[in-house]
Specification:
Layout: E1 2-7, H1 17-24, H2 30-38, E2 42-44, E3 60-65, E4 82-85, E5 89-94, H3 111-119, E6 143-149, H4 152-163, E7 168-176, E8 183-187, E9 190-192, E10 200-202, E11 211-220, E12 223-230, H5 237-244, E13 270-278, E14 285-289, H6 294-306
Parallel strand pairs: 6-13
Antiparallel strand pairs: 1-3, 2-3, 4-5, 5-6, 7-12, 7-13, 8-11, 9-10, 11-12, 13-14
């Protein structure tokens, strides 16, 4: 059992207790915390409260998170595009439309289902039953390179590299509009959107520092092909930062109007192209590049012909 303590901040005043907790832990549902509250595993100022309790500034909320239990997620024989594999790490090229790990109501056809089948018992268990081997994520409609850890030692090592921002992560994407500069840097703290829980936003009050470097690769009139280098790795970082300067990713249904003249475009046009890290056992720097998916190549070809 892991116990964590949080103090309610001014911007969280009035939130339901279960919603307050689900904002702090975005990977867990409100129903998960409603169950913890019902089981007396959540206390406010050392007292038991209902899930509907409106938290107040400076309330002290104590949460007892249950230990991970043996995985019940079903292995599935889903083909993996493997960029590299050894006894410690697996680097895969995640396809579009695949969720990285299961969530409430979505326990099949995820990357975790696929790697459980592929790796059998060789996965780190640090992230518990839902996210075995998962040390970082990319969004469902973002394609590209992702590291999977096959033992706890590798997981701890890679997680520390990510924390220190030493993992080299390069993305490419197509944004709406013609970027004025050939290159630049966007700095803006990213946190939960104050009113729309599913969205992140540049949030000066409760955001965490976020830095995105960008370089224009090619211009296509009202669209720009861009390379991004992440200095930090916040949730939806590239999508939020580009939308914040008026150039949302083409097809992004959350941070733009989602409408585009290109039929059958599924979500944002973003690809995690290159990932580089120090191997947790050998100490050697390794770098892998995921080829552009077919839809992305076709879209670039179409845009070139339209100019």
């Amino acid at each position: 059992m892991q116990t964590e303590i949080f103090e309610v901040q001014a911007e969280q005043e009035g939130e339901r207790l279960d919603k307050f907790l689900s904002i702090i832990y975005p990977d867990c549902s409100r129903s998960f915390f409603q169950k913890l509250i019902k089981n007396s595993q959540v206390h406010v100022n050392k007292h038991i409260q209902k899930a509907s309790y409106p938290v107040h500034m400076e309330d002290v909320v104590t949460v007892e998170i249950p230990d991970a239990v043996e995985t019940t997620i079903e292995p599935q024989n889903i083909p993996l595009d493997i960029l590299y594999e050894d006894d410690d790490v697996l680097v895969v090229n995640k396809p579009k439309g695949m969720v990285v790990h299961p969530s409430a109501g979505h326990y099949l056809d995820t990357l975790v289902n696929a790697i459980l089948y592929h790796c059998r018992d060789s996965l780190s268990g640090i992230n518990g039953e839902i996210r075995p081997g998962i040390v970082h994520r990319i969004d469902m409609d973002t394609t590209g390179s992702l590291i999977v850890c096959k033992n706890d030692e590798s997981h701890v090592n890679i997680a520390q590299q990510i924390k220190e921002h030493s993992v080299n992560r390069i993305y490419v994407g197509i944004v709406c509009g013609n970027l004025k500069e050939d290159d630049g840097t966007i700095e803006g703290p990213i946190g939960r959107h104050p009113t729309q829980r599913k969205k992140m936003a540049v949030n000066e009050k409760n955001g965490k520092p976020a830095i995105t470097h960008y370089k224009v690769l090619e211009r296509f009139g009202n669209y720009t092909y861009v390379q991004f280098k992440l200095e930090t790795g916040r949730t939806h970082q590239i999508r939020v930062h580009m939308a914040s300067i008026g150039h949302p990713l083409l097809g992004d249904e959350l941070y733009s109007n989602g409408r585009s003249p290109f039929k059958h475009l599924q979500g944002q046009t973003l690809h995690a192209q290159t990932i580089g890290f120090v191997h947790p056992r050998s100490g050697e720097y390794m770098e892998f590049t995921a080829p552009l998916p077919e839809y992305f190549e076709k879209l670039l070809h179409l845009l070139k012909n339209l100019v």
